[in-house]
Amino acid sequence: RMGRTVVELFYDVVSPYSWLGFEALCRYQHIWNIDLRFRPAFLGAIMQATGNKPPAMLPKRGEYLLQDVRRMAKYYQVPLKVTQDSLQHMLAISTLGAMRFLTAAGMTHPQHLEPLSREFWLSFWSQHEDISKPDKILAVARKAGLSPELAQKLLEKISSPEVKNRLKETTEEAIKYGAFGMPAVVAHHNGKPHLFFGSDRIELLGSIIGEKWVGPVPS
């Protein structure tokens, strides 16, 4: 693994663009000389700390967002489904519990982070489910291949100080790197961190670390 570029992906499953960036990076981790690290963080706290507002708060931007996400989902081949109610769904449902669950998983069973994150996005953005409910979190964990025992154990951990603090620390780390939204991708290259915002900057990330981008679905 010598000479591999460490790439950190700070994300929250409330963010549809984070899902697109996540899938692209998951595909490229097998092609590029990178060490991809999943860093579940809390978008609400990043927005608050930086004075940012969800794009959906601005009606014209909200309209564009729906259209843009539809086009991007098709282009990235990600089963993200947006409807007129998606923006309301996005603003109404808290992903704090889900992000704490992912944080707990990352602390003890990091191998589950990729499938778990994907299942949370599928539940929230493809099935439009309320992932703030504990039974929904357990259903997502089962679909991601976790045993009922492990899922229950992680669910119990989400109210623990260590999990709450870890999520807070990861979120603060993203802010220190300059994040103001998500996805925030940080590539550690030539001894310094390079921040990229959004799912459409992976091509630029590649050019900085000397890797070739061949589209969102490299064959």
How would you explain this protein's 3D organization?
This protein has 219 residues and is of the alpha+beta class. It has 10 helices and 4 strands. The two termini are 23 Å apart. The model has no long low-confidence stretch (mean pLDDT 95). Residues 6-207 form the DSBA-like thioredoxin domain. This is Glutathione S-transferase kappa 1. Pfam families: DSBA. It is an enzyme of class 2 (transferase).
Core attributes:
219 residues; 53% helix; globular; alpha+beta; single chain; 4-stranded mixed beta sheet; Glutaredoxin
The value of Rg in angstroms is 17 Å
Structural category:
alpha+beta
Task: Please tally the helical runs, counting DSSP H or I stretches of 4 or more residues.
Answer: 10
> How far apart lie the N and C ends?
23 Å
User: How many discrete domains?
Assistant: 1
How much beta, percentage-wise?
Answer: 5-15%
Helix and strand element order: EHEHHHHHHHHEEH
Largest sheet: 4 strands, mixed
Q: Determine the CATH superfamily.
A: Glutaredoxin
Strand tally is 4
